[in-house]
Amino acid sequence: MIRFENVGLRYGMGPEVLRDVSFVLPERSFQFLSGPSGTGKTTLLRLLFLSLKPTRGLITIFGKDRSRITREELPHIRRRIGVVFQDFRLLDHMTTYENVALPLRVRGREEASYRADVVELLKWVGLGERMHVLPPVLSGGEKQRAAIARALIEQPRILLADEPTGNVDPQLARRLLRLLIELNRMGTAVVVATHDIGLMDQVDARRMVLSGGRLEIYD
Amino acid sequence: MTSPKASRLLLPAARLKETVSAGIRQQAARTLERRRLTPIVPPDSIAGRAMVLVIAIMTFLSCLTLGAVTLVRDTAAAWQTEIAREATIQIKPAEGLDMEGALGRARAVAASYRGVRGATIVDRAATARLLEPWLGPGLDIDELPVPRLVIVTIDPVERPDFAAMRAELAEAVPSAVLDDHRGWVDRLVAMARTTVTIGMAVLGLMLSATALTVIFATRGAMAGNGHVIEVLHFVGAEARFIAREFRRHFLIAGTRGAAAGGAAAVIVFVVFSWWSSRNVATPEGDQTAALFGNFSIGLSGYLGVALVVLLIAGLTAATSHFTVMAHLKRIET
């Protein structure tokens, strides 16, 4: 589904943040992306999410060469990739329901056509009672679940989660992890960027470890 | 205890109450369903409200400048036409000259020309009144060698051949001097042109300052929306969708501010126009009217104000569009 071959990236004239990174993300796979802070986890996620272009190497996403994807094609490809940001990135002036429905709304779909799906998804992530609440009123865990729901509403083929358990207590972290595993069982590939070893120990999954800009994979 | 009769009476009332409350519940549910979605661009922040205020003030000042330039241009044109509409034949008294006969001949010569609407001799009484401020009342005009005048009214569209008229007058009345006010008109035209050019330059500077202020105020208001653009971008919104949402929001905000400023300027002109029309016969009113005409900016002035309002609203929308595009480009790289 996604293939990286000898990918390198540097910001401006600075040193390479990622060096000779090569891996394949198969369909329906589950993996952790870990490594100490500042080793390029978020940069790698941004490459996966097409918000950065590599300075060298080859990236193939859904069978397309990254360097040949035009700006007009980007939104269409991005709809197949769900992202959960570390800082949630919910819009504070919209309700939880509207935040989760946003990816469908920006595609110009009528609200009546997606209302039931959004409500069902909100119930699935445990926010059925909080759908008309504004994000500033939500707890950290609720915000995280709203962000996950927003990433899933378009039924993406892959979900990228940047430190999804970084701001929640261990009990809630386990619940969120179970949510991601359940999602994976339903057919979505999942990449969880985390440096929480305790969280990784709970699942027998592939580990992609970044260190000094290089990637090592432990299957 | 309620009697059976009372129960029979109460039952329909209870049913009605139930029906009404069910109706209200259904209506509430429908209202919730039809609840309008929150706009994608957040409602005005403090920076947004400040932007609307800045736009209103700058539009007001621009429209005032535009109105003032229109006023000066129209008044200058009116002065020119007034003066160019008349010429004067002055006949100096000379030894043995039959003044009345000379005046009649001069009038006949002037009236015979194409483009002359009429020629009037300024009679003795009127001449005496003209000299009254200098020589005092009760002047006997025959005691002094006072020059006499013939006022020639000219068609401003088809002006007569003054050179030919001057030559013919020199023959018919040697002491007559024809003044076509050319010197005055030329000076007035030069002054009016200078005034209008200065006005246009001031208007140009004012509009440039307004444009720059509007651009900076819009960018300031947009700065708080960076996260909205990013989120929309990351949830798969196309650039033109994001730009359209912001354009629409800022077009409405810009129109609100610009319309308020334009309306305030129009009110100022209407109030001054009303004041000057109420003070027509007073010294203040006459003085103001002599300087500024009737203070009415006319149709072109009002159209100019409308154009300024539209331009500023459009500029606000365009600025938000380019700011969104620049932000998206920054995210992409």
UniProtKB/TrEMBL annotation, chain A:
Keywords: ATP-binding, Cell cycle, Cell division, Cell membrane, Membrane, Nucleotide-binding. One of its GO terms (biological process) is cell division. Residues 2-217 form the ABC transporter domain. GO terms for molecular function: ATP binding. It holds the Pfam family ABC_tran. It is found in: Cell inner membrane; Cell membrane. It is a peripheral membrane protein. Belongs to the ABC transporter superfamily. Homodimer. Forms a membrane-associated complex with FtsX. Part of the ABC transporter FtsEX involved in cellular division. Important for assembly or stability of the septal ring. This is Cell division ATP-binding protein FtsE. It comes from Chelativorans intermedius. The lineage of its organism: Bacteria, Pseudomonadati, Pseudomonadota, Alphaproteobacteria, Hyphomicrobiales.
TrEMBL record, chain B:
Keywords: Cell cycle, Cell division, Membrane, Transmembrane, Transmembrane helix. One of its GO terms (biological process) is cell division. The chain crosses the membrane at residues 50-72, 196-217, 250-275, 295-320. It comes from the Bacteria. This is Cell division protein FtsX.
